[in-house]
Amino acid sequence: MPLTQTANKMEFTLEHRRYRLAFTVPVRTAHGPWPVRQGLYVRAVNPDGVEGFGEAAPVPHLGGETTDDDVAFLESLGGRVDESVLGWVPAELGALRNALSCAFGRPHAVAAHPSLGVAALLPAGRAALDRAPVLAEAGYRVFKWKVAVHPAPDEMAILDDILARLPSGSVLRLDANGGWDRRTAESWLTLAAERPVEFVEQPLPRNLPNLEDFLLGLARDYYPVPIALDESVSTDADALHWLERGWPGVFVVKPALLGDAAGVLSRLSKANALVVFSSALETAVGAQAALRHAFAWPGKRMALGFGVWPLFTPGLYDGPQAGPFIEAADVERIDPSIPWNATNSPAS
Ligand code: MG
Does the annotation mark 254 as catalytic? Predict the structure, then answer.
């Protein structure tokens, strides 16, 4: 057997452990409450005994991948695999492919920045008014407000009150999570135009008929405030599709959900796309991998959507301390074997 082939066929011993972690505070989504984070870890050990870890943390309402699907696929592989399995993972199991790729120790790019800014998350509705000054005092200058939670006129009526509570030079992101209709989206974009709104995120649901042409029209012609896509670009295929359509706005990328995060990000980077790196509410193992992509991103720096922790009890499952900045050194300090060792439940 030629040497090169032997090198390519390095066999790993593969194990997985499933986790079920209650969020310390149940997460509210556009699809209702999300009380328990499910996912799994994989550990791959090469013939020299070097171990690598990965996390598959699919989001139930994004893309349709579930941990049950991931477990079933892993169990079909058996306990000894080589890297060619990456070519067999079904496209819809992006989070699992991502986990395996990390566990095989695919080299990751080196951090280009020592620290990156983080966007502060404001609660929906009037609660944002009390929270904004507290977060401003803590040093945040980029804020994100969940909208489309209450009737649009009520939310529009307090936009200026929220902006007035932010320090000068601050910007506000408006995240509708696909909760508006076309007219409401246009009203918001008109209102935001004269104000320090950094972008309007996912104004319309991803499955709206003729969504693409409508959004491209809005983004290109009428309104100065950029539009960001989040739910619309949650898989590799979606992100590449919008890139090919020439999307001129922001891509909110959750690296943990991309089967080939490095490949997709390389394409986005070559196109000079605007990218906001965002958490999929994964645990520390997946967060380390996702944040490494963010720190290596060569394009324009935009505040991270990783102001999410603490999420879990015990805290060993949480990603790095989220303040106004995340430090690259804190990302590298994460030891994936700690959550792995704490997760003793049977795999299925
Ligand atoms: Mg979003």
Answer: yes
